[in-house]
Amino acid sequence: MPEELTCADKLAFMNKAMKAAHLQLCVTNNLLVTDRPDLPRAEDTSWTTDHRTELARLEAAMKLLEEISTGSDPECGLCSKRLLTMRAEML
């Protein structure tokens, strides 16, 4: 990541990275997984993935990031404008 990025660019990068991680955890959540596909499904050879804790933590972090970037810090006025632009692009 180039160091010339503005605060708004850095917040946008973090937001995008967290959304991508969140999507991957959603995709792999609640799957039946086995390490023995040659055997019938059994408790000792298969399990269900559960990423609910990680998803909740990511959602909380994304919410905090949104709160930070919509703040009224006079030294970082670009952040809230950039986040509004990102939201419009995602819709």
Helix-strand blueprint:
Elements (H helix, E strand, L loop, with lengths): L6 H21 L4 E3 L11 E3 L3 H18 L7 H14 L1
Antiparallel strand pairs: 1-2
From the structure above, extract its key features:
91 residues, mainly alpha, two-stranded antiparallel sheet, 2 strands, 7% strand, elongated
Description of the molecule:
There is one protein chain. The model has no long low-confidence stretch (mean pLDDT 80). It is built from 3 helices and 2 strands; from the N terminus they run αββαα. Strands 1-2 form a two-stranded antiparallel sheet. It is elongated and about 55 Å long. It is mainly alpha-helical and 91 residues long. The longest helix has 21 residues.
Provide the succession of SSEs: HEEHH
Major sheet attributes: 2 strands, antiparallel
The coarse silhouette is elongated
The overall pLDDT, averaged over residues, is 80
Beta-strand fraction estimate: 5-15%
| N- and C-termini, Cα separation | 26 Å
Q: What's the total number of strands?
A: 2
Structural class, judged by helices and strands?
A: mainly alpha
Rg is 19 Å
Low-confidence residue ranges:
none
Query: Helical residue percent?
Result: 55-70%
Number of helices: 3
Record the strand order, biggest sheet: 1-2
